Amino acid sequence: MTLVTDLPTVERVLDDHASVLGHDRIAYRNHVYRVVNLCLAVAGGNSVDVEKLAVTAVFHDLGIWTNHTFDYIAPSVALAREHLASRGLTDWIPEIEAAIVNHHKVTSAPADQLCLVESFRRADWVDVSLGLRRFGLTRSSIAAVAHAWPDAGFHRRLVELTIDRWWRHPLNPLPMVKW
Predict the structure, then answer these.
(1) Count of other CB atoms within 10 angstroms of residue 95
(2) ∠ CA 113-59-167 to the nearest 5 degrees?
(3) Range 28-31 contact pairs with CB under 8 angstroms and sequence separation of 24 or more
(4) Which of 68, 117, 143, 178 has most Cβ atoms within 10 angstroms of its Cβ?
(5) How many Å apart are CA 152 and CA 105, to the nearest integer?
(6) Among residues 38, 60, 49, which one has the least CA distance to residue 126?
(7) Which residues contact 153 (CB under 8 A, 6 or more apart)?
(8) Ranges of the chain whose pLDDT falls below 70
(9) Which pLDDT score is estimated for 170?
(10) Residues 6+ apart with CB under 8 A from 132
(11) What is the pTM of this model?
(12) How far is it, in rounded angstroms, from Cα 84 to Cα 127?
């Protein structure tokens, strides 16, 4: 498995948001690169545009930090839309928005969803579940990605955010999860 190690869009966006990411910057960066590489592995022979994947990955959780909320899907979509509009890539918005909105969907995306949406959903689940959900990927390929981009506290941070959200909103602790 050849790993993607340098995505200029990811680096620029993370640099632009370094102050809000604070000490979580490396953890989030590594999560983004893990998800990109897992997505490419999940997609297999299907063509996934790496630049679309980079934009999706870098923005998919960013609303957690920019809006200080665990109900971050809408803020993340807004950031991605703004970024794409500024680059003249408004025709990418529907696909990238669908991937961000559905990345925590428990069940498969509808059959008519584009390749990026379903492969991104699966890749994020592989990473967030620490490989408990593998979608056909081998443990060794998941381990290779994790070795290249260590956790750096990302999963610990997710646990902290989940506990905080649970205390504040016990009736809606995980607003990003969909069935």
Answers:
(1) 19
(2) 100
(3) 28/61, 28/62, 28/65, 28/154, 29/149, 30/149, 30/150, 30/151, 30/152, 30/154, 31/61, 31/127, 31/149, 31/154
(4) 117
(5) 25
(6) 38
(7) 24, 27
(8) 45-47, 110-114
(9) 87
(10) none
(11) 0.93
(12) 25
Distance CA 85, CA 157 (A): 31
> What gap in Å lies between CA 123 and CA 8, rounded to an integer?
21
- DSSP code of 22? G
| Domain map (residue ranges) of the chain | 8-168
Distances (CA, A) of 173 to 21, 30, 71, 161, 176: 22, 25, 9, 10, 9
Q: What pLDDT score does 133 carry?
A: 95
| Phi, psi dihedrals of residue 178, rounded to the nearest 5° | -130, 155
39, 41, 73, 134, 178 from 107: Cα distances, Å = 17, 19, 17, 14, 8
d(CA 100, CA 95): 9
d(CA 144, CA 138): 10
